[in-house]
Write a structure and sequence with these properties.
mainly beta; 7% helix
Length: 662
């Protein structure tokens, strides 16, 4: 028999749905005409309040960085755990694990139900108009896994923007070839966008092996890769108050897995393939907007190692349905509420059966801005139920609240704070992997708090959008987070098993700064950041007392970066520096990897001829040929080069003003 709390949740969800449906079917009398607008994710507004975010726009990164992992490593304080160029790349942000960073694709969570993570090496920067790294937890809005941060992959378009074509070719060391092309058609009622990329590389670089006698120089083997993908967006105004959006993201990758520094050779490889589909229907009324989202994901992974006759195939299917309402009773008040259902199933050689999971949730957010615009606050709430395999029901999760506020104490000074309850559900691998899966695992959960202060000489300016004015910005943040029932795999007899035994305390401080000084024919800009993070075990398994109060593995205490850019007329020159501190490789902190710093530089030349723009970029990475390891026993490349040739064509529409919309 179902529990009373579960039945109550279903009743409330049905009631919400009944309230939503009439708003969709309502007549035209209370609607307004939708002007040419940017398409954006509405829930994000609530989740950003009181937290810090770093934003990269397409015009800044399209020609410089092919992969998201490169951007985070070189232009932020996020620690990227990469196994080598093109190999698996995940994050550790604010002392969390890779599964504590959530991934949101235009308002839809996309992390894997098998392991709760995403491989950043498979995410091309050129597919997105905006990538936003939001530090701090926000489980109340986005659900499981948004514990330490969220990475938002957003596409933003405007109607009547004409025709835009782009093409890019990048060739670099180790036979690294990257090609990308895109087409955008933007009219008064229709937007069509298609983007595609292809990448191949040998990655056969020389490296120094410190684990062999004499520290010889070796050439990396079995490290080639091939990736390609396509991304399509279609927007259509069905009438003045309804809009439909269709998206498709398809990608294929084949990657050889190179040997460890302690291995003579490797014959392993991995093939990843996925199709992600989504639809979004938006209806806008005077004070009420309704958004219906549906998404289907089909993902496959094949691991092959002929040296040990291992052939492992796994696949996942996910269906997401989300109904969201935005109500503006007054210009100072906003209410966002909705229901969401996520159904996932997976198939793997190491599962006895085909596990299934159904997660149903209600969420609500109240946002308020005072009449003088000095104070903005957001209160959020989420209630969720999880059913595994149609019979193993996880208890209804406790209410998950969050609160954030931003207060302008002066014209150029703002204070921000947030308090969040955060959680992460066990993944399919945690629950059902054979051998070792533990179906009785509980969700990780805890509380996160942060407070920050920001000084800006141009309060309404952000670093990527104010190139023409002089400004200075400085942000400092202190955060604290405690997670109970942290899931860790531990030896149990002859196998390893996940257990809810750890309590982890993460705290630290972050500093970010930006400066821009323009002059008649150019400008100078600089950005920098520094993180000091302590993330320690406060409760450990019996027999592991040596790990108590020790820093988590692969969480550096110190991470910093600096980026300088000088622009003059058609030329620009950029230099970036990043430093990563000690990373412990054992839980008792007895073994570690030494710090490393990377220096990169690039020169760009841009020519505009009518509607055409031609760009030439030359880049040098790891200028001082640093020999380093991000992950133990995984080789990383020394000094390397690349050259990029890009072309843009933009023909704008001649749009006459619509007097009926003014």
């Amino acid at each position: 028999m179902e529990s009373h709390s579960y039945i109550l949740l279903r009743i409330i969800m049905c009631a919400c749905a009944l309230e939503i449906v009439p708003s969709i079917a309502a007549g035209q009398s209370d609607t307004i005409i939708m002007k040419d607008i940017f398409i954006y994710d509405s829930k994000a507004t609530a989740s950003y309040t009181g937290t810090h975010a770093t934003v990269w726009n397409a015009d800044k990164t399209t020609y410089r960085d092919a992969k998201l992992s490169d951007v985070l490593q070189q232009h932020s304080t996020a620690f990227v755990k990469t196994y080598g160029p093109g190999s698996l790349s995940t994050t550790s942000i604010r002392g969390g694990s890779a599964a504590h960073t959530g991934w949101v694709w235009n308002g839809i969570p996309i992390q894997s139900p098998m392991n709760g993570t995403m491989d950043m090496a498979l995410i091309p920067m050129g597919f997105w108009d905006e990538v936003r790294l939001q530090t701090g937890g926000c489980s109340a809005i986005w659900g499981s896994g948004i514990v330490s941060s969220a990475i938002h992959l957003n596409n933003k378009y405007s109607y009547n923007n004409g025709i835009k074509l782009t093409s890019q070719t990048r060739y670099g060391s180790f036979a690294n070839l990257y090609q990308q092309a895109s087409m955008l058609l933007s009219y008064s009622k229709t937007i069509f966008s298609i983007k595609s990329f292809y990448q191949s590389a040998e990655n056969n670089f020389l490296y120094t092996n410190p684990y062999l006698f004499g520290k010889p120089q070796l050439r990396l083997t079995n490290s080639a890769l091939k990736l390609y993908g396509t991304y399509t967006d279609v927007f259509r105004k069905l009438n003045p108050y309804n809009e439909l959006n269709l998206r498709m993201w398809h990608q294929y990758s084949y990657r050889q897995i190179p040997p460890l520094m302690t291995q003579n050779s490797s014959k392993a490889s991995q093939t990843d393939q996925f199709i992600r589909l989504s639809t979004e229907w938006k209806r806008k009324k005077k004070k009420h907007t309704t958004i219906l989202r549906n998404a289907l994901f089909f993902e496959k992974l094949f691991y092959n190692d002929i040296a040990i006759s291992l052939h492992a195939l796994s696949s996942t299917n996910t269906w997401i349905a989300d109904v969201e309402n935005i109500y503006h009773p007054h210009h100072s008040h906003q209410l966002i509420y909705g229901i969401q259902n996520i159904y996932s199933r997976a198939k793997a050689d190491n599962y006895n059966n085909i596990p299934q999971q159904n997660r149903s949730a209600m969420y609500a957010s109240y946002n308020h801005t005072t009449s003088n615009k000095k104070l903005r606050s957001s209160a959020n709430l989420r209630l969720e139920t999880v059913i595994n395999n149609s019979s193993e029901r996880v208890a209804v999760l406790p209410l998950v609240p969050s609160w954030g506020a931003e207060y302008h104490v002066a014209k150029k000074m703002m204070l921000a704070a947030s308090v969040n309850r955060v959680y992460r559900m066990p993944t399919f691998n945690d629950l059902y992997w054979i051998p070792g899966g533990n179906p009785s695992l509980k969700p990780e959960q805890g509380w996160a708090q942060e407070i920050s202060a920001r000084f800006s000489s141009a309060p309404s300016c952000h670093s990527d959008s104010c190139k023409a004015i002089k400004y200075f910005m400085l942000t400092s943040t202190a955060f604290n987070r405690t997670i109970h029932d942290w899931i860790i795999w531990l030896p149990a007899s002859t196998i390893w098993m996940p257990q809810n035994v750890m309590k982890v305390w993460s705290r630290g401080v972050e500093f970010k700064s930006n400066i821009n000084i323009p002059w008649r024919k150019g400008s100078f800009s600089a950005s920098s950041g520094y993180d000091y993070i302590v993330s320690t075990n406060e409760q450990v398994y019996e027999g592991y007392e040596s790990e108590l109060h020790k820093q988590l593995i692969y969480v550096p205490w110190n991470k910093t970066f600096t980026e300088l850019t000088i622009r003059y007329s058609q030329f620009s020159l950029s230099y970036s520096f990043s430093y990563t501190g000690y990373r412990f490789t054992t839980a008792d902190n007895e073994q570690y990897l030494p710090p490393f710093d990377l220096h990169n530089a690039e020169a760009e030349y841009c020519v505009v001829a009518g509607k055409n723009k031609f760009i030439l970029v030359f880049s040098v990475n790891n200028i001082f040929d640093e020999q380093y390891q991000v992950i133990a026993y995984r080789a990383m490349p020394g000094r390397n080069y690349s050259i990029t040739i890009a072309w843009q064509y933009h023909k704008k529409n001649n749009v006459k003003p619509n007097l009926n919309n003014t």
